[in-house]
Structure formats: C-alpha cells, structure tokens
User: Fold this.
Amino acid sequence: MDTTVTNTVELFFSQYRLRKYSKGQILILNGDDTDFVYYLTSGRVKQYDITYRGDEIILNVFKPPAFFPMSLAINKTSNLYTFEAETDVELRQAPADDVVQFLKNSPEVTFDLLSRVYRGLDGLLGRMTYLMSGSAKGRLMYEILIACRRFGKQTTGGSCIIEMNETDLAARAGLTRETVSREMKKLIDDNLVALQHGKVTVKNIPQFEEKLGKVI
Assistant:
C-alpha cells in the first residue's frame, strides 16, 4: 500500500477495538461462517486446509496491512479454510458489511486491494507451474523464494534469511516432511542454502533464482 491508502485504511479500522491473539490460536475455523473482516496490524496469519491424510497445506500467509477474508465478505461464500495465527498477532475486527461499504466508497483502496489480489494470483500461477512439473525440488525452491520475497530479511551481500523449519516448508509446498528434508540436503550440498535453528538462509538470491529457472 502507498501512504495515502494505508492512512485511509488505518483510519477506517481504528474505530474498532484492537485484539491480540497468541501463536496457534484459530481466528476462523473451516466450516465456520463469519460476518467479520480482520485487519492485521502485526504478526502473520496463515490460511490452510487439511488433506484427507491429515496433512496441513498452507494456501496463503497474510502480513500487515492485510485484511481478510475478503471473498467471504464480498461474495458471501461458505468458508472452506482455517485461519490461524502463525505468530503472535494484533488485529482489528470489523463487520463485513461495513468493510464492503468502505470499499465501495474508497476506490483508491479497492484498486490497491485488486492490485494485491493479482500479485497473489501471479504467485499462485507460479506455484501451479512447479506443481505441474512434478519436481519436488522445484516446488520447494519456489516456496523458499516466495518466502524470501514476502517475509525474508535481506542482507547487503545478496542473501536472505527466513524463519521457517522443514515442517513449515512442507506445509507450504504440499510435500511430506521427509521429502523436504531430502531435497533440502541437496540444496545444502549445492551450497545454495544453509539450515540452522529453525531458519533457512538463501546464500545468494540471484544464483538461487537462476538455479530455480533450470529445474522445470
């Protein structure tokens, strides 16, 4: 968001009480209908589904200043997913109808939201590309790269640090923990990443991107 849009959004949501949730708390459960929209001011919230085998598949991760779940608010659809605090979070909860009316009255905010939806769609299409390629390595590398772009701590030397372990990556890439462990070892052996204490370090982002482009 640019500054003007951010100020407009913050002013609207500031009329609603700030709420705090601890890591692991459920905001919206699969199957629950909600009449509210959450505006995230700090922390991260993950949106996920559970497969028939009981595996968690992370579909999206929201970071400030996101507000969600907009599909339910705008389209009045049934909720199919679970929204959970991935870290400790602070957010404001507004009635869905109020948020929809706010968007109708604020075209600059609506345009910004649409822009972010399309950026998310580009990421989804990229994920589908590597999913259809059938390469576990490509899927894992793509998720690592996306995490670097969205949540990573960039260094001046061209590396990136993300706070994720192999279980987190497995849920994002739709792979088993064992597969991720095996593919991570290959990336470590190739001197592309380092794994230590729940953190993944991508040693050289341009080199990592170049390697990813050759996976398909």
Observations:
- The domain at 3-121 is CATH 2.60.120.10 (Jelly Rolls).
